[in-house]
Amino acid sequence: MRGHKRKHILVTGGAGFLGSHLCERLLNAGHEVICVDNFFTGDRDNILAISGHPRFEFIRHDITLPIYLEVDEIYNLACPASPIHYQLDPVQTTKTSVHGAINMLGLAKRTGAKIFQASTSEVYGDPAMHPQQESYWGNVNPIGPRACYDEGKRCAETLFFDYNRQHKTRIRVARIFNTYGPRMHPNDGRVVSNFIVQALRGEPITLFGEGQQTRSFCYVDDLIEGFVKLMDAPDDVTGPINLGNPVEFTIQQLAELVIELTGAGSILVHKPLPQDDPRQRKPDITLAQQHLNWQPTIPLREGLGKTIAYFEGLLQRGEL
Ligand code: NAD
Ligand code: UDP
Ligand code: UDP
């Protein structure tokens, strides 16, 4: 390829929701992509379209175990992401974040590769600061049922910064906020997939509480663009850097939009608000705007349309 350096790039968790979009994005940019995944929450169907691509390679492997590959860049995404999934085997969740990070950082150290970590807004825990800036240290319960995820991701960040200081490993840490799009899991209890599946089945839409709590939803393509921009940024831009969409919607507004776009006849029903459900979550993306010249461009209405089309496909094939 003229005027372009083809890189060898490892994507862990590449058969998952975000990872499969990232693999496609990197293949389209002309790179060689190695996807490593143990299929804990990932799915072969997510990488079906690229599985025959001449520059794509899949390795079934658990990143808590060492792996030796020669690569230029590593995107470390492997980790179950929703409470239903990460609480199935909490010890394995911590191992994936911590042992997985150590192995991937060891690989980066040996090969000199740049390494990106998919961290999360959950490192802020139940935040005492709105919106959350990267300088906020968070408020996490270290012994609760969410700790395997939150503390695992916090420890992974610690490891990234210690490898950076101790071994000069080139690191990029993104703190990802709520993201939606095609290939998100239909059964993981998240609000966007719940509402779309309920609407397509003509079932009532379940609003927890009054539905006046707010969230901000980033469409997957916008997020993946942010990943690539962060990876390509100068080495002093290590992060942590928030990536998400700062436009807030109430959960009731989301429900009404899903009903409108699906044309469903669903009614809204109220269910009890889960304990400790945050009233508001919104990223402060000033750093990403300044350092990466990045901000989301796809409005909720447009992104929901594409996501609904994906779930309609699953429904028609009897996979929902
Ligand atoms: P996902 O569950 O779809 O993808 C995770 C992938 O990692 C799956 O394919 C799974 O099989 C794989 N995996 C899990 N444990 C593994 C292990 N030990 N070894 C190898 N592979 C393993 O989730 P996602 O939404 O695509 O999330 C990707 C990453 O982004 C995760 O690290 C998650 O914590 C982070 N993140 C996602 C969001 C979001 O809104 N989706 C928000 C914040 C952070
Ligand atoms: N590692 C790996 N692939 C590599 C290099 C290292 O999986 O290409 C693992 C290795 O098994 C080790 C971990 O990464 O357990 C950390 O490596 P590092 O070199 O930092 O530490 P050490 O090997 O000295 O414990
Ligand atoms: N929610 C809802 N109905 C559902 C699922 C979720 O009203 O069927 C609400 C939930 O209480 C929360 C918001 O939607 O206020 C976002 O929930 P999700 O689990 O998707 O993400 P998080 O709470 O981690 O932001």
UniProtKB/TrEMBL annotation:
Protein location: Cytoplasm
Main location: cytoplasm
Superkingdom of origin: Bacteria
Domain NAD-dependent epimerase/dehydratase: start-end pairs: 9-244
GO cellular component: cytoplasm
Names of required cofactors: NAD(+)
Full protein name: NAD-dependent epimerase/dehydratase
SUPFAM superfamilies referenced in this protein's UniProt entry, alphabetically: NAD(P)-binding Rossmann-fold domains
GO biological process, one term: D-xylose metabolic process
GO molecular function, one term: NAD+ binding
UniProt keywords, alphabetically: Cytoplasm, Decarboxylase, Lyase, NAD
One Pfam family here: Epimerase
